[in-house]
Amino acid sequence: MRNDRDTMDADRDATIDDATSAALRSMLESVRLEGSIFLRAEYTEDWSYESPPAIDLAQLLRPGRQRLVLFHIVAGGRCWVAVGDGERHWADRGDVIVLPYGDQHRMGGTDASDPVPIASLMSPPPWPDLPVIRHGAGGDRTDIVCGYLDTDDPLFDPALRALPPVFVVRPPSTAAAWVEASIGYAMSASQGAADDSFVARRLPELLLTEVLRLHLTTTPAAGPGWLGALRDPVLAPALAHLHRDPARRWTVRELASEAAVSRSSLDDRFRSVLGRSPMRYLREWRMHVAMDLLATTSLTVAAVGRRVGYDAEEAFSRAFKRTVGRSPGHWRQSLTEGPAR
């Protein structure tokens, strides 16, 4: 009987996950995106670069815009990416790196290297053909396909910080076709065989939509309610504060004060739109951030716990296990791509 119940629970959870995934895909497909794959790079160990500030890169790629969504597809090899003084997030072949706010960032390989400005490695636009950057000391090679998307959707509003400044997604086999198509396009485009009528616009949009869906599936209250909350005049400022500083010891009173509403109004809005209290949302958001850090960085479990508001590793481990079903260490070990890709 116990096994039957476990099977029923697993089937129910799978149905819920499928419904959430379908809802997210439907909502994301309505987000207006315009973009392009704009270059590919061949880096050889040792290597590293630093991008220009967000506004400078946006002006370079799309004059008149303040910032763009950036993505990097790892076509081969292994690399890391970091924003500001943040942790290095590792990515391997087939992974997609997303910088939803186009923040200034650094990227490099497995060997230590002083970063060079990316602008020093390429000629200024306009580019008659897809630029190809070749840089490094001649060792093991990493191939990167770079693209951008332009959108005014609140999901990509840096004031809301609904997404981390950088995250890495490894698409499963069901989504890998988009990644392979993007890689194939970039390789052919560098030889003058680009199909601009389709790939330069639609494929990056479809790719990012699928990658975002995969990432957001672990977000608390993921689905139309959550995406709609980013446009809600009460919830949007409250969520922005929680997203920017999940480690803060928030109380409902403090959060309501930041959102300029009463505690009861804030609590009612969270429950009616997101189906949970503000503090439950905060706990689940912390676990969402923790999962990303555990999956793509080499931070210790204790360090990840501190990043999301837990001074004691034991307290963080208990909270993580209640939410995810496994301890942080066991969850990290269960990842097919390794504990810190």
Task: Tell me what the structure shows.
With 341 residues, the protein is of the alpha+beta class. Helix content is 43%, strand content 18%. The protein has 2 domains: 33-216, Sandwich (Jelly Rolls), CATH 2.60.120; 224-334, Homeodomain-like (Arc Repressor Mutant, subunit A). The strands form 2 sheets. It has a 6-stranded mixed β-sheet, with helices on one face. Strands 5-4-7-2-8 form a 5-stranded mixed β-sheet, with no helix packed on it. The chain is globular, with a radius of gyration of 21 Å.
Low-pLDDT segments: 1-16, 337-341
Look at the structure and give the mean pLDDT.
82
Question: What is the top-level CATH class of the largest domain?
Answer: Mainly Beta
Number of structural domains? 2
CATH homology superfamily of the largest domain = Jelly Rolls
Summarize the structure in short:
The chain is an alpha+beta fold. The strands form two sheets. Strands 9-1-10-3-6-11 form a six-stranded mixed beta sheet, covered by helices on one side. Strands 5-4-7-2-8 form a five-stranded mixed beta sheet, with no helix packed on it. The chain has twelve helices and eleven strands.
Topology of helices and strands:
Blueprint: H1 2-29, E1 34-44, E2 48-50, H2 54-61, E3 69-76, E4 78-83, E5 89-92, E6 96-99, E7 105-108, E8 116-117, E9 132-136, E10 141-150, E11 167-169, H3 176-189, H4 202-216, H5 224-229, H6 235-244, H7 252-259, H8 263-274, H9 278-296, H10 301-307, H11 313-324, H12 328-334
Parallel strand pairs: 1-9, 2-8
Antiparallel strand pairs: 1-10, 2-7, 3-6, 3-10, 4-5, 4-7, 6-11
Helix pairs in contact: 1-4, 3-4, 6-7, 7-8, 9-11, 10-11
